[in-house]
Write a structure and sequence with these properties.
With 877 residues, the chain is mainly beta. It has 8 helices and 43 strands. It has a single domain, classed as Beta Barrel (Maltoporin, Chain A), CATH 2.40.170. The protein is globular, with a radius of gyration of 29 Å. It is a multi-pass membrane protein.
């Protein structure tokens, strides 16, 4: 395979040297719109350095995509860009988020595969210059996009916190000065109906407006089917447990959304321009497709063993008892005597506690061995596994309800020909609910629902200037950011043997000052120096609790007189006159106000500060060739681990920031009279304090668990060898491996034979392919009537990816090839067009995310979309 990849890489590089371009794999597919016949590969103007520049003059590895390129390749969301940019992985959805509106972004091995409020992204998403703080809603729809810029490597100097892996900047359509518009409607697989329209309406000689509206409806591709056993009806329905919502669906991964965006721009040709914007998105659909992949009911654990501590059901050796899956099977299939022999009467007894009587349920003990066959329950085993990736026996929650809106204002004032002041003010608000049935069965064995509410305010001031006949360009700025919100987790394990109810609230405030100077003293030589100082304050209140009170039942705390004893027999709360400690204190529960709360009560505070510098040098041997080198740093803020299921005493577990330092060297070139462009970059990154998702029991926790070294290269090309033909190509190689692991990572470091490959020094980082290749030809044939036929193909080859930190074998994404194609007819003057296309034509299926929860005996994941077709009609006016 490696020889095959090297041969392919050599072939692509040869193509680049003779017929290709340096821009992003898809960036310039429609570049003829700016270049003309004599200059077939046109320019793309980006704002990666806070000022408008030809992307070929920016000494940063950038993949930029024009509106035409995105439309022709049916790219409709940020995650759809994943195949087109080398060393970039963008997935719609994270493990157990239940929503494809959540973006999992990794660039050059650095990112985040989670949605929780306590975990900040490693790749910053910007919408018209405004930072989107949450991954929820970051997988933006792109109905009116003007371009998308993918910046690789730490962007801390100009973009700030949480851009340690890179940044993705989305620039939407600005109002035009003439009345015009566009409209398209698409139909396709799974009853797809997508409608988009944009109209520009001048209101006066100096005031212009635009309005974009879009709607999407599509049936889910994963179908739920009934389980063929009448005992399925004896399981407790998910409506009996605490959840964020109780909507279900017959199909998962459906779409139902509407979005609006409006802009007003004032420009009288003078020194001041102002743009006001507003956007609104609403989604109300089924949840993300989630598939049960494996069951593990027989792994030994500490519950109800034969070597228990006296008076308890706890085996400290974790060798003779069960984990949650095995405990469930033991409870329903054991006689009262067998249960009593292991002190498991409380564990197998009524579920819930007196503190939340609404969620109390009958016990599970002996239901399959008593005299009543009508109450028999299904055991947890492999009967629920289905080989078809698009079928499931799930019956639980499946919903995605997102409402997001924002207001923004950008004012730009030209103080002098050499000095401009720019202000970007924005407020954004999201309300989200999601639910997923991850167990793929009629049992409530692993069901997760969430609510998240968030608002943010940001203000950025920029001073953009030039001096010395434009030889020196500078950006100076100040930034303020405020965010508040809450996340409430509800997770039910093993028919309620563990019931997580986790309310959390967050408050973040950030201040920063930044600057960058680009000085080009001669035509040959240029220098860059910049830096950003950031100070951040975080507040957090956690309220995680177990509604089943499982630890009390494990240690025999149902009753007692309060006397201190070696083990067990402590009361849940001390009776009047008791002389010993209450049970909640003996077991390190943190508060008497709520004995089932496991998280430390009260407000937790952390303060972070960082200086992210950048230095660089550029050589310009010719007008169309630039060689550059740079060193830059970035950081990702820290926080607290919140998903815990054991009492935390009086200490809130936290984690610190990540840091990355990157050396990068590259070449950007436009050759053969713009029939060929070629960009190459090579990099090495020292990645410190990596925030790893560590699975501790049922809990996915976060810790600074290691360091890594990341190195690789990228080649991005476009060629126009003959009239009408454009060949886009990209090649990325990355080697991202741990160089050190802290004790916190050791829980995932020991591989379980046949289940986990584990992590260790030298193991690869997750969500990072060793090789990625994309080749995309576009051919346009002119017709006699002035119209044209456009043929487009996409081939993306990606080597294997480990989807989780512990490298679960079932979750591994194998080497795969994805092929897309389309054919379009463009009418004369491009007044209308008709396009027929297909995605994933070879029906290649692989997992885009997943989780292995051995404590609950389940592995689950989400597959990529199957083969689909579409037919699109578009028109302009």
């Amino acid at each position: 395979m490696k020889q095959h990849l090297l041969a392919t890489a050599a072939l692509v590089a040869t193509l680049a040297a003779t017929t290709a371009q340096a821009q992003s794999a898809q960036t310039q597919s429609a570049a003829t719109e700016t270049g003309g016949e004599d200059s077939p590969i046109g320019e793309i103007v980006v704002t990666a350095q806070k000022r408008s520049e030809n992307v070929q003059n920016v000494p940063i590895a950038i993949s930029a995509f024009t509106a035409t390129s995105l439309r022709e390749r049916s790219v409709t969301s940020v995650s759809s860009l994943s195949a087109l940019a080398p060393n970039v992985n963008l997935d719609g959805g994270t493990p157990f988020s239940g929503s494809s509106a959540v973006l999992s972004a990794t660039i050059r091995g650095i990112g985040s595969d989670d949605f929780a409020f306590n975990i900040d992204p490693g790749v910053g998403i910007y919408l018209d210059g405004v930072y989107l703080a949450r991954t929820v809603g970051a997988n933006q729809d792109l109905p009116d996009v003007e371009r998308v810029e993918v910046l690789k490597g730490p962007q801390g100097t100009l973009f700030g916190r949480n851009t340690i892996g890179g940044a993705i900047s989305i620039v939407t359509h600005d109002p035009g000065k003439e009345f015009k518009g566009s409209f398209d409607v698409t139909t396709g697989s799974y009853n797809l109906v997508k409608v988009r329209a944009t109209v520009d309406v001048p209101l006066s000689d100096s005031l212009f407006s635009s309005l974009t509206a879009a709607s999407l409806n599509r049936q889910g591709f994963l179908k739920r089917i009934p389980f063929p056993d009448q005992r399925a009806g004896n399981s407790d329905p998910f409506t009996r447990f605490a959840n964020a919502g109780y909507a279900s669906a017959s199909r998962e991964s459906g779409d139902a959304s509407v979005s609006l965006r409006g802009k007003l721009k004032w420009d009288n040709g003078g020194a001041v321009t102002a743009t006001l914007s507003a956007d609104y998105t609403h989604q109300d659909s089924s949840g993300q497709a989630t598939k049960l992949l494996g069951v593990y009911p027989s792994i030994p654990g500490p519950f109800a063993g034969t070597a228990n501590l006296p008076g308890t059901a706890f085996d400290p050796t974790a060798s003779t008892g069960f984990l949650f899956a095995g405990l469930y099977n033991f409870c329903i299939g054991s006689t009262p005597a067998q249960i009593a022999a292991r002190n498991a009467q409380a564990l197998c007894g009524p579920r819930g506690t007196q503190f939340n009587p609404r969620y109390q349920l009958p016990g599970l003990a002996s239901v399959n061995v008593d005299a009543n066959p009508l109450n028999d329950r299904l055991p947890w085993d492999g009967r629920f596994l289905l080989s078809d990736p698009d079928l499931s026996y799930a019956t639980g929650p499946s919903f995605n309800q997102l409402t997001a809106w924002g207001l923004g204002g950008t004012v730009q004032a030209e103080v002098s020909p050499d000095l401009t002041v720019k202000s970007i003010t924005a407020y954004r608000n999201t309300r989200w609910k999601a639910g997923v049935d991850a167990d793929g069965s009629p049992l409530s064995f692993l069901e997760l629902t969430f609510t998240q509410n968030q608002w943010q305010f940001s203000q950025e001031l920029q001073l953009l200037g030039k001096a010395f006949d434009s030889k020196l360009n500078y950006v100076l700025g100040a930034y303020y950011f405020k965010e508040k919100g809450n996340l409430h987790d509800y997770v039910n394990f093993a028919e309620g043997l563990l019931q997580v109810d986790g309310p959390n609230s967050f408050d973040t405030e950030n201040w920063a000052a930044f600057g960058q100077i680009d000085f080009r003293p001669s035509d040959l030589l240029g220098f860059t120096v910049g830096g950003r100082y950031t100070r951040e304050r975080k507040l957090f209140i956690g309220g995680q609790q177990d509604l089943n009170g499982g630890n009390y039942k494990l240690f025999g705390c149902a009753a007692g007189d309060g006397t201190i004893a070696p083990f067990g027999n402590f009361p849940l709360a001390p009776p009047v006159g008791a002389g010993g400690p209450p049970c909640f204190a003996a077991l390190s529960f943190p508060t008497a106000a709520n004995p089932v709360q496991i998280y430390v009560p009260g407000e937790n505070r952390k303060t972070f500060s960082d200086f992210s510098p950048k230095v660089g040098m550029q050589l310009h041997p010719t007008r169309d060739v630039m060689v550059y080198g740079s060193w830059s740093r970035g950081y990702k803020t820290g926080g607290w681990t919140t998903r815990l299921t054991n009492p935390q005493g009086q200490v809130a577990p936290d984690f610190n920031e990540e840091r990355a330092s990157t050396f990068e060297a590259g070449i950007k070139s436009s050759l053969l009279d713009r029939h060929l462009q070629l960009n190459l970059s090579a990099f090495t990154t020292a990645y410190q304090g990596v925030q790893l998702n560590i699975q501790i029991g049922t809990s996915p926790t976060i810790a600074n668990a290691g360091d890594a070294r990341i190195k690789g290269f990228e080649v991005e090309m476009v060629a126009a060898p003959v009239r009408g033909l454009t060949i886009n190509a990209a090649l990325g190689h990355i080697d991202a491996r741990y160089t050190a692991l802290q004790p916190a990572a050791l829980v995932n470091a020991s591989p379980i034979p046949g289940i986990q490959a584990g992590i260790f020094v030298g193991a690869p980082l997750p969500k990072t392919a060793n090789w990625k290749i994309n080749v995309s030809p576009r051919y346009e044939y002119g017709l006699g009537n002035g119209g044209s036929i456009v043929l487009i193909g996409d081939w993306t080859h990606t080597t294997e990816v480990w989807n989780d930190v512990a490298r679960a074998v079932l979750l591994r994404r194998p080497t795969n090839d994805i092929v897309n194609a389309s054919i379009a007819y463009n009418a004369p003057d491009e007044r209308w067009s008709l396009t027929a296309g297909g995605t994933n034509l070879t029906a290649t299926r692989f997992l885009t995310s997943g989780n292995l929860n051995l404590a609950d005996g389940a592995a689950f994941g989400t597959f990529n979309r199957p083969r689909e077709w579409y037919l699109r009609f578009g028109m302009t006016f």
